[in-house]
Design brief:
mainly alpha, 453 residues, 18 helices, binds tryptophan
Length: 453
């Protein structure tokens, strides 16, 4: 059976699309600033552990569910549950994912708008010869400007809607084939710059020296949530992409490739940014503005920096776009299946809803910056935390339980092409280690019990 929405032409096309989904603002914008806020190395190690022990098994499970169901996540969960005699309530994985996708895209598009704005600023030579104070001021002036931020946010939303209305296969493959390798290349240029002119040793120490005393239970939860976010798992995006995957492709090795690429991009971004942060007296815990201070500094002081800097931000905006596309695919596929809607109309409805939601995030950086939903959380902090720390891990938890305990073991083993000697490892990971770790990290962050950190 094939999906009514089409199929990837081959394994490589899926790798491109899934990597396009995984690599995005999460790696380049979010990972560095979260690492900075959570004290460096200890956060990084926990994040890497979460990728390996929780993220990869759940990603494998999610892709597999998609390929078995061949529909939008909601209908995939419905039809698989019907086949295996399970409650239709399992489709809530799909519904929750649709909600999470809307919430994430609403703020994701705002930040992507920042990227577009910075592309133009750099291209105009705004940062040539800039110092730390100048880039910080530029950032705070920009975030204070509501209409400018609304403009770029709206533009990014329009571009996203235009692209998704044309279908996943068209456009996307081509996009990722060129943009992704180029992005890698430019990240290495940045890395080279920060090795030569930044405090590279301090950056490396910051990123990789593990001090357990630095760890708070909140940081552990953030690291786990980020593992979900960066791999695009827990909400059905990768399930939807899996539903377009040809039968013969090996899911396990393919997911391995995607996870390694995704992690590499994040680590390179961290290695490029922190040395620049330290030499220029920026604050590692500057929050969401970190990237927008460090990167302009680097390009502002590089020969032909305006050109390369603009190209860098252009490529990051491509990376953001290929991620944004995957955030709406579950909802879009569902609308098309359920209401026989044209992709264009479904895309417009979803895009408009996310745009309305996103206005809250725009305002939380300026006119509503003093408006707190709970404790000291602005709207942006709130939507970011709820999606990343609660919705995605919970979705992933349910996916793990479903695959481990609600499906015939044999069907799973066949679908994943698992060798006999690997089945125990798989069962331990998906049935025990991944779901149990999620529960422990979650309860720990609520203060239900106390481990060493
Ligand atoms: N992984 C993307 C990033 O790192 C963001 C993203 C795309 C995502 N699709 C997702 C996050 C689905 C969670 C779920 O930028």
């Amino acid at each position: 059976m094939e999906s009514q929405h089409g199929t990837w032409s081959n394994r490589l096309a899926f790798i491109f699309a899934a990597t396009g989904s995984a690599v995005g603002l999460g790696n380049i914008w979010k990972f560095p600033y979260m690492t900075g806020e959570n004290g460096g190395g200890a956060f990084v190690i926990i994040y890497l552990l979460c990728i390996a022990c929780i993220g990869i098994p759940i990603m494998i499970a999610e892709v597999m569910l998609g390929r078995m169901g061949r529909q939008s996540p909601i209908n995939t969960m419905l039809s698989l549950s019907k086949t295996y005699g399970r409650s239709s309530a399992w489709s809530s994985i799909g519904w929750m994912g649709v909600a999470a996708g809307f919430i994430i895209l609403s703020y994701y598009a705002v930040i992507a708008g920042w990227i577009l704005h910075y592309m133009f600023l750099i291209a105009q030579g705004h940062f040539t010869g800039a110092d730390g104070e100048f880039v910080s001021n530029t950032f705070s002036d920009f975030t204070a400007d509501v209409s400018l931020m609304m403009f770029w946010f709206t533009l990014f939303m329009i571009i996203t809607v235009t692209i998704i209305s044309r279908g996943v296969k068209r456009g996307l493959e081509l996009f990722v084939k060129w943009a992704m390798p180029l992005l890698f290349l430019l990240m290495f240029v940045l890395l080279g710059y920060s090795m030569v002119s930044g405090d590279f040793a301090r950056g490396v120490t910051f990123l990789f020296s593990f001090n357990i005393a630095d760890l708070s239970s909140e940081a552990v939860l953030s690291a786990m949530g980020h593992a979900f976010f960066t791999l695009s798992i827990g909400m059905g995006a990768i399930m939807a992409y899996g539903s377009y995957l040809p039968r013969k492709v090996s899911i396990v090795s393919t997911v391995g490739v995607i996870a390694v690429l995704d992690t590499l991009v994040a680590l390179i971004a961290g290695l490029a940014i922190f040395p620049i942060v330290f030499t220029n007296g920026l604050q590692p815990d500057a929050g969401p503005g970190l990237l927008f201070q460090a990167i302009p500094l680097a390009f502002g002081n590089l020969p032909a920096g305006s050109l390369f800097g603009a190209l860098f931000f252009l490529l990051v905006s491509f990376a953001a776009l290929t991620s944004a596309i995957s955030l709406v695919e579950p909802a879009l596929a569902f609308f098309v299946e359920k209401y026989k809607m044209k992709r264009l109309y479904a895309a417009i409805i979803i895009g408009f809803t996310c745009w309305v939601l996103g206005i809250g995030t725009v305002f939380s950086f300026n006119i509503w910056s003093d408006f707190h939903i709970v404790q000291s959380m602005t709207i942006f902090d709130f939507v970011d935390s709820v999606s990343q720390k609660i919705l995605l891990p919970f979705g992933g938890f349910l996916i793990a339980l479903y695959v481990a305990y609600k499906m015939p073991v044999q069907a799973v083993i066949e679908n994943l092409d698992l060798a006999k000697k690997h089945t125990h490892v798989w069962k331990a990971l998906i049935g025990v280690i991944a779901p149990l770790s999620i529960v422990i990290i979650f309860l720990h962050s609520l203060g239900v019990f106390k481990l060493i950190f």
